[in-house]
Design brief:
- The complex is a heterotrimer of chains A (about 350), B (about 270) and C (about 300).
- Chain A has a 6-stranded mixed β-sheet with strand order 6-7-8-3-9-10, with helices on both faces. A 6-stranded antiparallel β-sheet of chain A has the order 13-12-11-14-20-21. A 5-stranded antiparallel β-sheet of chain A has the order 15-19-16-17-18, with no helix packed on it.
- Chain A has about 350 residues and is of the alpha+beta class.
- Chain A starts with a strand and ends with a strand.
- Chain A is about 25% helix and about 35% strand.
- With about 270 residues, chain B is mostly helical.
- Chain B is built from 13 helices and no strands.
- The radius of gyration of chain C is 24 Å and the shape is globular.
- Chain C has helices at about 5-40, 55-65, 65-95, 100-110, 120-130, 135-140, 155-180, 185-195, 200-210, 210-230, 230-240, 250-260, 265-290; strands at about 40-45, 50.
- The chains are: A alpha+beta (about 350), B mainly alpha (about 270), C mainly alpha (about 300).
- At the B-C interface, helix 1, helix 3, helix 4, helix 5 and helix 6 of B face helix 1, helix 4, helix 5, helix 6 and helix 7 of C.
Chain lengths: ~350, ~270, ~300
C-alpha cells in the first residue's frame, strides 16, 4: 500500500493536448474516482499511472518514489480493464496465478494465495473454467481476483462495470466498495458514470477536456459545484439549468419569470447568467411562479414532473404521488437558498448571500 | 523521459536487420532486371547495373520468338479465368453465406474439403479426364479446369457472413428476387474484396506453369511461363536473353504490385483460417 | 406451373447459385482425386487403351528404388522446409509488426518475390548460383569460403532448392502471421505487462498460445505445399528436374515423369494415390493434435 502523487502531468498527442498540467494527491488507502465524459482524459491519466502510456511532462510517484521511467511491471500496480483482458487460453486459476508465476513464487504459495482470493470473491467453484465459460459478472470478479492476488500498492480500475447490465452493476458496485473497505488498498477508479463515482469514492476528480474541473468529496461536489459543468454533471436527475440575465438584483429568466434573490457577494455588472436548481428542491404549491405541466413520469416511489416555465422547462422531483395531468396549471416554489448562479460565459459559480 | 516515436539503439539494430533481410528478398529480382540490360559478355560481372546498358536482349526475345503471341495467350487465359471464377464464386459464396436451403452446410464442407487437393496431386487423372472431354490443346482446356478453387469461395463466403443483412432484407421487402438482390445489392457491396481477389486470381493464372505445360503442345497456345521455361533449354547459356524474357514476364505483375500492394497484402493477411 | 412458396424459392435460388461451382469442383477436383484410385489398377498403352492389372503398380512401388528415393526426398524437403518457414515467417512478422512507414516499405519488399512466377524465380536463382562464375560463388570466394556446387552436388541441391523456396514463400507467411498477430487484442499485452511479463514472457505466454489458429493454418498449408504444392513442383522442375542423381526428385516430380515422360499413367496414378493418402494422414494428424482445429477455450 502506498500513496500516489500526480504532479503537473501533461500529455500531448502531436499538437492535441489530452491532459493539461494535472496534479492530484491520493492518500494511502484512499478510493479516488476519476469521472468525466468520454474523451476527457481520465483513461489516459490512468494508463500513465500504470506505465502503459508515456507522459509528455510531469511526474508520477508511488509511495514517494518517482516511477516515470519504470516499466509497468516494476510499479507494483494492478489494473482491472474495461474488457477484463482475461487471458482466454488460461483457466481462472491460471489467470490469477500468472503474475505470481512470473515472480517465481513457490507453487504452494501461489496455490494458497489463489485459494484465499477466490474464496474472498466467491470464485472457488470456477477455478478450472476458462473465461469464455463465465458470465459477465463472473469475468469481472476474476479480473478483480487477478488484481487482488498480487497484493499491489495501487489498484487501477478502467470503467470496470461499463459492460454489465444495470442490475449487476449495482451489485458489483457494492462488492467493490466492500472489498476496498476490507483491503484498504489505494484505488484509482475511472468511470463516466457519476453515480458510480458518487456511491463508491472517498473523493472525486471531475475532468473535462484534459483539465480538472473540481476535486472533492462526493457530497461536497453535489452541494457546492464550483462551475456549471460540475453542477450539470453530478447528480441524477440532472440539475435544472435556466439561462437568463440580471436586472437590478433580480434574475430574469429568458421567457419572462423573475427571481428576486440574486445578491452576489461581489458586485458585478449586469449580464448573462445561468440559474440552477436541483429537481427535488422544486416544490409545487399554492403560491409561487405560475407554470404548466408538460409531462408526468411516475417512477413508483417518486414522480418526475416536467413543467413549462416561460421558454424553459423545469424538472421537478416530487416525493408524493400526484394527480397532475399534462396541461394543468401549477405554481413553483423554490427556496432561494437552493439556487445556484453561474456566469454564462466563464461557467464559474457566482457566490450569493 | 521516454517519448512516443523515439527510437532506442536496440530498435535501430532490429530495423537494420529487417532492412538487410528485405534487401535479400528483392536483390535477386533486381539482379534479374540488371542482367536483362547487360550484353552477353557482362552477365557474370558482379555488379547490379550494366556498364553498357543495352535493349538488344529485349529486342532479340521479342523478335526471335513469337513472344507477343505468348503474352496475349496468357493475358486472355488469365483474364477469362479471373472473370468467370469471380462470377461463379460470388454466387456460390453469397448462397452459402445467406440463402437457407437444405444441405447447405454439407455442400460447403464438401467444397471446402477440396481445398488441400493441389494440381500436382491430381495431374494424371485430370489430364486423362480433360483428354477424354476433348479439351486437350485448346483454350477451353487451359481455362475451364483453372476456374474452380475452394479458396475464393471460402473467402467470399466469410466476407458475406460479415456484411450486415439489412440491405438485402430491404431489397427483399421491396419485392426483389434473389437474382436481382445478388446483381444489384450483393455484387456492388463486394467491390473491395472482388478487386483484391481479381488481382490474386489473375496473378496465380499469369504465373501458372504446371497445368498449361501439361495440356498444351501447340506452340500457338503456349503461355509465357511455359515459353520461358523452354527458352532455358534453347538458349541455355545466354542468360542475358533468359533474364530479358523473365523480366518481360515478371514486370507486369511487379507493376501491379507497386500499384495495388496495399490491397494485395491486406487480402492475404485476412486469408488465414479463422 | 404452380407458384413456389417463399421458402422453396429460396431453396431453388440457393441450389442454382451454388450449382456452377459445385459442378466444377466435383468434375475437375473431386472426380480426378477419385479417379486416381481407379486409374492406378489399370495399365495404359500409348494409344489410350487400358487393361486391368490389379495391384501390380502397388507391388512395383515396393521394389522401385526410385520411388523410395522420391519418398525420402519429399519427407526431407517437408521436414526442413516447414519448421524453417514457420520460424522465418513468424520472425519477419514480429520484426515488421508495428505499423509505420518504414515497416510498410519493408513488408512490401519482403513480399515482392511472391509476385513473380516460380519459373522466373527458378531461372534467376540458377543464374545466381551458377558454378564458379555465378554471383553467389563469387561472393563466397571474396570472403574466403570455397564455394560448393549448389545445384550440381547431390549433397547440396535439395538444401539449395529448400532455401530458395523459403526465400520465395517467407513474405506470404509473414503476412499470414501479421494477420494473426493483429488479431490479438492489445489489452492482453498490457495486462501481462502489469502482471510483470517481460518481452520474452509476453511472447511465450501470450503471443504463441493466442497464435495457435494461425500456427495451425501455417503448418498445415506449408506441409501440404511442401508435399504436393505446385510451387515446389515448378521450382524443382525449372531448377533441377529432380537431379542431380535424383537428389531433388520430389514424389510429385517422379509421378510427373512417369506419366508424361514414360507415359505410364497407371503407375503414376498409383503413386498419386499414395500421395493423397499421405496428405489425408497428415491433415488428420493435424486435426487430432489441435482437437479438430478448434481453438475456442470453451
Amino acid at each position: 500500500m502506498a500513496s500516489l502523487t500526480i504532479q503537473n502531468v501533461s500529455k500531448n498527442y502531436g499538437s492535441v493536448a489530452a491532459l493539461r498540467d494535472i496534479s492530484i494527491d491520493i492518500d494511502d488507502g484512499e478510493f479516488l474516482a476519476l469521472v468525466g465524459p468520454s474523451g476527457c482524459g481520465k483513461s489516459t491519466l490512468l494508463r500513465i499511472i500504470a506505465g502503459l502510456e508515456p507522459m509528455t511532462s510531469g511526474a508520477v510517484s508511488i509511495g514517494g518514489d518517482v516511477v516515470n521511467d519504470l516499466p509497468p511491471k516494476a510499479r507494483d500496480v494492478a489494473m482491472v480493464f474495461q474488457n477484463y483482458a482475461l487471458y482466454p487460453h488460461m483457466t481462472v486459476a491460471e489467470n490469477m496465478a500468472f503474475a505470481l508465476k512470473l515472480r517465481r513464487l513457490p507453487r504452494d504459495q501461489i496455490e494458497k494465495k489463489v485459494r484465499t482470493t477466490s474464496q474472498l470473491l466467491d470464485l472457488d467453484g470456477m477455478l478450472k473454467r476458462y473465461p469464455a465459460q463465465l458470465s459477465g459478472g463472473e469475468r469481472q470478479r476474476v479480473a478483480m481476483g487477478r488484481a487482488i492476488v498480487r497484493d499491489p500498492s495501487v489498484f487501477l480500475f478502467d470503467e470496470p462495470l461499463s459492460n454489465l447490465d444495470a442490475k449487476l452493476r449495482v451489485q458489483l458496485r457494492a462488492e467493490i466498495k466492500e472489498l476496498h473497505q476490507r483491503l484498504r488498498t489505494t484505488t484509482v477508479y475511472v468511470t463516466h458514470d457519476q453515480v458510480e463515482a458518487m456511491t463508491m469514492a472517498d473523493r472525486i476528480v471531475v475532468m473535462r477536456d484534459g483539465n480538472i474541473e473540481q476535486t472533492g468529496a462526493p457530497i461536497d461536489l453535489y452541494d457546492d459545484p464550483r462551475n456549471l459543468f460540475v453542477a450539470g454533471f453530478i447528480g441524477s436527475p440532472a440539475m435544472n439549468i435556466v439561462p437568463g440575465e440580471i436586472d437590478d438584483g433580480t434574475f430574469v429568466a429568458r421567457g419572462g419569470f423573475r427571481i428576486a434573490a440574486f445578491r452576489p457577494e461581489t458586485p458585478r455588472d449586469p449580464g448573462q447568467v445561468v440559474c440552477c436548481v436541483r429537481p427535488h428542491k422544486v416544490t409545487l404549491g399554492e403560491t409561487g411562479t405560475p407554470a404548466s405541466v408538460v409531462v408526468v413520469e411516475p417512477l413508483g416511489g417518486e414522480t418526475q414532473v416536467i413543467v413549462r416555465l416561460g421558454e424553459t422547462s423545469v424538472v421537478c422531483l416530487l416525493r408524493d404521488r400526484t394527480t397532475l395531468r399534462p396541461g394543468d396549471a401549477v405554481r413553483l416554489m423554490i427556496d432561494a437558498a437552493d439556487l445556484y448562479f453561474f456566469d454564462r460565459d466563464s461557467g464559474q459559480r457566482i457566490d450569493c448571500n | 523521459m521516454r517519448r512516443r516515436g523515439a527510437v532506442n539503439p536496440v530498435q535501430i539494430i532490429w530495423m537494420l536487420v529487417t532492412l538487410i533481410l528485405a534487401l535479400m528478398a528483392i536483390w535477386p529480382l533486381l539482379y534479374m532486371l540488371g542482367t536483362a540490360f547487360k550484353p552477353g559478355s557482362e552477365v557474370f560481372e558482379p555488379t547490379l547495373l550494366p556498364s553498357h546498358a543495352t535493349l538488344e536482349n529485349f529486342a532479340y526475345v521479342l523478335t526471335e520468338a513469337p513472344f507477343w503471341r505468348y503474352l496475349l495467350n496468357t493475358l486472355f487465359v488469365a483474364s477469362v479465368v479471373t472473370v468467370v471464377a469471380l462470377f461463379f464464386h460470388t454466387m456460390a459464396g453469397y448462397a452459402l453465406a445467406r440463402l437457407r436451403f437444405p444441405g447447405r452446410e454439407g455442400i460447403f464442407l464438401a467444397m471446402f474439403s477440396t481445398f488441400l487437393i493441389s494440381t500436382p496431386v491430381i495431374i494424371v487423372p485430370l489430364f486423362i479426364l480433360v483428354r477424354t472431354l476433348g479439351m486437350l490443346n485448346s483454350y477451353t482446356g487451359l481455362i475451364v479446369p483453372a476456374i474452380f478453387h475452394a479458396f475464393g469461395i471460402f473467402l467470399l463466403r466469410q466476407y458475406y457472413l460479415s456484411l450486415p443483412r439489412e440491405l438485402e432484407e430491404a431489397a427483399l421487402v421491396d419485392g426483389a428476387g434473389y437474382w436481382r438482390i445478388y446483381w444489384s445489392v450483393v455484387l456492388p457491396m463486394s467491390r473491395p474484396i472482388i478487386a483484391a481477389l481479381a488481382i490474386l486470381f489473375f496473378l496465380a493464372n499469369w504465373n501458372s506453369f504446371l497445368w498449361p505445360m501439361t495440356i498444351t503442345a501447340d506452340s500457338d497456345l503456349q503461355v509465357v511461363q511455359v515459353a520461358i521455361a523452354s527458352f532455358q533449354s534453347q538458349y541455355s547459356a545466354s542468360w542475358n536473353y533468359i533474364m530479358a524474357a523473365s523480366t518481360i514476364v515478371a514486370a507486369p505483375m511487379l507493376v501491379l504490385f507497386l500499384v495495388f500492394q496495399r490491397q494485395i497484402m491486406a487480402s492475404i493477411k485476412t486469408s488465414g483460417l479463422k | 406451373m404452380t407458384r413456389l412458396s417463399g421458402k422453396h424459392r429460396e431453396w431453388l435460388a440457393g441450389y442454382l447459385f451454388v450449382l456452377p461451382d459445385a459442378l466444377g469442383l466435383a468434375l475437375f477436383i473431386a472426380l480426378p482425386a477419385a479417379m486416381a484410385l481407379f486409374v492406378s489398377v489399370y495399365s495404359f498403352d500409348a494409344f489410350g487403351s487400358f487393361t486391368f492389372v490389379g495391384a501390380t503398380h502397388y507391388r512395383r512401388m515396393l521394389v522401385d528404388p526410385l520411388f523410395w528415393t522420391s519418398l525420402r526426398v519429399t519427407v526431407t524437403f517437408a521436414v526442413t522446409l516447414v519448421p524453417l518457414l514457420y520460424v522465418t515467417g513468424l520472425g519477419l512478422a514480429l520484426l515488421v509488426q508495428r505499423t509505420n512507414l518504414y515497416n510498410a516499405i519493408m513488408r512490401s519488399m519482403l513480399f515482392a518475390p511472391q509476385m513473380v512466377s516460380l519459373v522466373v524465380i527458378g531461372l534467376v536463382w540458377q543464374l545466381l548460383v551458377v558454378d564458379k562464375i555465378g554471383i553467389l560463388p563469387q561472393m563466397l570466394v571474396a570472403v574466403g569460403i570455397e564455394p560448393v556446387s549448389f545445384l550440381g552436388d547431390p549433397r547440396f541441391a535439395l538444401l539449395t532448392v529448400t532455401l530458395v523456396c523459403i526465400w520465395f514463400l517467407m513474405g506470404f507467411y509473414m503476412l499470414v502471421f501479421l494477420g494473426g498477430l493483429h488479431d490479438i487484442p492489445q489489452e492482453y499485452y498490457e495486462a501481462a505487462q502489469l502482471d510483470g511479463a517481460g518481452r520474452i514472457a509476453r511472447f511465450w505466454y501470450i503471443t504463441l498460445p493466442l497464435l495457435r489458429p494461425t500456427s495451425f493454418f501455417v503448418l498445415l498449408v506449408s506441409t501440404v505445399s511442401a508435399v504436393a504444392g505446385a510451387h515446389a513442383f515448378d521450382l524443382v522442375y525449372v531448377m533441377t528436374k529432380g537431379g542431380p542423381a535424383n537428389a531433388t526428385s520430389l514424389l510429385m516430380m517422379y509421378i510427373y515423369q512417369q506419366a508424361f515422360q514414360f507415359g505410364d499413367f497407371g503407375y503414376a496414378s498409383a503413386m498419386s494415390a499414395v500421395l493423397v493418402a499421405m496428405l489425408a494422414v497428415l491433415s488428420g494428424l493435424f486435426f487430432l493434435l489441435t482437437r479438430g482445429g478448434r481453438f475456442q477455450y470453451a
